[in-house]
Amino acid sequence: MPLIKLTQPLPTVHLLTLCSPPDNRLTPALLSELSSHLDTIEAHWRSNGGGEMDPKKRDATDLKGAGAVVITSECKGFFSNGLDWEKSIKNPKFFETIFDPVMYRLMTFPLVTVAAINGHAFAGGMVLALSCDFRIMTSGRGLIAQLAFGSPLPNSFGPFLAQRIPHPPHLRDTLLARRWKQSEALQIGLLDEIVDNTQPGSDGKLLERALEIAQREAPKIAAGSWGAMKDRLYHGYIDASHSNRAVLMPFHEAAVFQERVGRDKAKL
Fold first, then answer.
1. Cα–Cα distance, 100 to 115 (Å, whole number)
2. Cβ count near 179 (within 10 Å)
3. Per residue in 85-112, pLDDT tens?
4. Of 58, 72, 84, 127, which has the maximum CB count within 10 A?
């Protein structure tokens, strides 16, 4: 069974639907599928004029180089609940070799990307949503960062979150696991829109609005410079990932402290 479904609801818009119950954990298998689907989408875009700098050649194709991607979930209540942490930390290079390359691919994707967040987006799930160009969300769900799960930030997350959440008090509160309400997330720039899905018959409004945004923005990236522009903005993410700086877990810090104070207990 696929962990992500790839469909094409509109000629210029592809839809990626996370379908890994119960909460779309970002496992290596799911991330591998996401990377593969992005390659498929980009190949389709380039075969339809995407990235062609000559406007005459581009306009001779059916889609004229327009393209966008919407990411959403079919798991009730969750966009993504982040990583399968216990399995992830068994691979000491999980972020450098698996997670970070896929997120960076999404961050710098040459098509417009829209996250239709129809459930909670926690920890790595929040990073997945923030990696998209546009983020819209249903009411009544939350976003939260790493601290509540007892894990430090990977090297790559620091520069990325500092860029996405530039106001120091907002970044501090996010790292201290504040659960942002939709209105607050909209105000500080984590979200672009909130779609009210509380009225009868409004279940499909979020996806409908996401497709509208995607279709509206899709022609703007036809010439192919959008991905390169984002690469200049977000290269700090992958540079930090490749820094080889050790990420200290809480038990590592405890051991370092005990070793240090054990050498000079008289100071305590």
1. 18
2. 16
3. 777 767 888 899 999 999 999 999 999 9
4. 127
